[in-house]
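Researcher: Can you fold this with norvaline in place?
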Amino acid sequence: MVLKKDTTTPSTMSSPTIISASNEYSPLRALIIGRAAHSLFPSEPPHMIRATMPTLHHPEFRPHHPFPADIVAKADQELDNFARVMTERFGLKVYRPKEVDWAKANEGRGGYTGAMPRDGLMVVGRTVVEACFGWGCRRGEIELAYHDVLEDIMEGAQKAGESVRVCRAPKIVGADTLYDGLLDDDKPEDRKDGAKQNGTFNSQNGNQTTHWAINNTRPAFDCADFMRFGTVLIGQLSHVTNPKGVDYLRAVLPAPYTVELLNTTDDHAMHIDATILPLRHGTLIYCPSRVTEEELRRHEVFGDWDLRPLPWNPEEEEEEEEKDEGPPRYMCSKWLALNAMSVDEKTIVVEERQERFARWLEEEFGMEVVRLPFRHVNSLGGSFHCATVDLVRKEL
Ligand code: NVA
C-alpha cells in the first residue's frame, strides 16, 4: 500500500523546542511524566463509579480513601525509572509535577492523583489545552500539580523566542450542574424526565443508546478522550466528555485543527487511549469490541491506513491478577495494553508483563519495544500514555 505522506501537520518557520506536537508518534523530544504520591481513589457519585469503574472495585471509591501505600510507593519508583530511561537512554527533556497532598485538595474534599497528566493536558500544535474536568475531585488538579511545569514552559518559550499559548480551563462559578438529574438520590421520575431536560444527552452506540453519567449543561472533557492525527483530532463522547466539551475544544484550538468524533461502542467509555493506538503514520491498532474498521474508515484521515484489530480478546485471557498476584487494576479494563507510548514511529514503551502484546508489535510491525515495569501505575488508573503528556514531537 502506498501511503500519502503526512502533509497535514502545519509546517513551521523554525524548529520549536518547547511546545510542538500534532500527532502521537513522531520523534519525541520533551514530555511530562506524572507523580503518584498521595493518590486517592477518586470520590465521585455512585452512578459515575458504576458507569466507569470495574465492578469488583466499586467499594474502594469513597471519600478520602488513599490507594494502598505500597502500591503508591512502587508506582512512584516506576514513574521515576520511566523518567530516567526517557532522559538517559533517549535524551528526552522530562518535566515532573509537584508533589501534592491530594487529601487537602478541593478545600479538603480530596483530589485524585498527579500520575495521570494525559487526562488534564494536551498539546495541539503550539497550544497547550487544559481539560474542563467533569469529575469534581479533579478540579484544581492541573493548577496544584502542574502550575510550575506550565510556568517553566512559558519561560522557556519566551527565552527561545517561541510563541506558545496555554489555554487554562474556565473556573466554574456557583454550583456545578453537570450531574443534575443523574444522581442516585434523585427520584426515579426525575431521572426519566431528565431525558427531556436541556442539558441531557445520549448517544447512539451502534444499535444502542448510551446514557452518560454527565449531562450537557456545561462544557466537560478529559484530554484523554482525544488523539491527534495531524490537523485532525479524533475524539469520543464519554462519561466525562459531553458535546459542549467538544464544542469548547473546537473553539479554543488554533486553526487549522479540527475535531471529529468516533462512534465507539463502549458503554463504559472514558478515555480513548485503550481503544485506538496509532503506531506510526499509516498504522493503527484498535480494540474491535469498541470500534469497527468501518467506523474508523469513515474518517478521511484513516482512508489509506493499515487498521489492525488486536487479534485476541484480553478480556478472555486469564486474570493477570490471579496469575501473578500483581496489584489490582482498580480503574481500567484489560485493554490497557493499548495504552502504550510511542517514542518515535519505530519505538514504543509497553508494560513489561504485556509480553504477548510486545512480541506481536515486534513480529508483526517491526517495532522496537521498550519493556518497563508499570503495574503499580496501572493500578492507579492508566499506563504509559495516560502517565505522560508529549510536549515536543519533531515534525515528520
Ligand atoms: N477507561 C479505558 C481507558 C483507560 C486508559 C479502559 O479502562 O479501557
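Model: Folded with norvaline in place. The radius of gyration is 20 Å.
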